[in-house]
Specification:
It is built from four helices and three strands, in the order E-E-E-H-H-H-H. The protein is an alpha+beta fold. The model has no long low-confidence stretch (mean pLDDT 90). InterPro entries: Phage_tail_E/E.
Length: 100
Amino acid sequence: MAQAKKTPQWLTLSAERVTVRLSRPSEANGVQVDSLALRAPTVRDIRNAQAGGAGDDEQRELNLFASLADVGVKDLEGLALKDYSRLQSGYFRLVQDDEL
């Protein structure tokens, strides 16, 4: 039997949203924040991110995360790499299929 992944302390996960506590405050929409929340994506979100990515996977992901977090792409680009990695991890936990 496989052992279930332990949820990191910096991550809060629900069916509709994931909240990631940042390792250090960062600016989002002109204010300092210590966490970012991503809502669950829709097919429309994925299609819009793909349309704006023009074959660039990194840009497509930035577009998607910015849309889901309701922040600008520049805000995400200003995150510490550790915090962006936390967002990626949170996103993938949010969209993974429920385990039986």
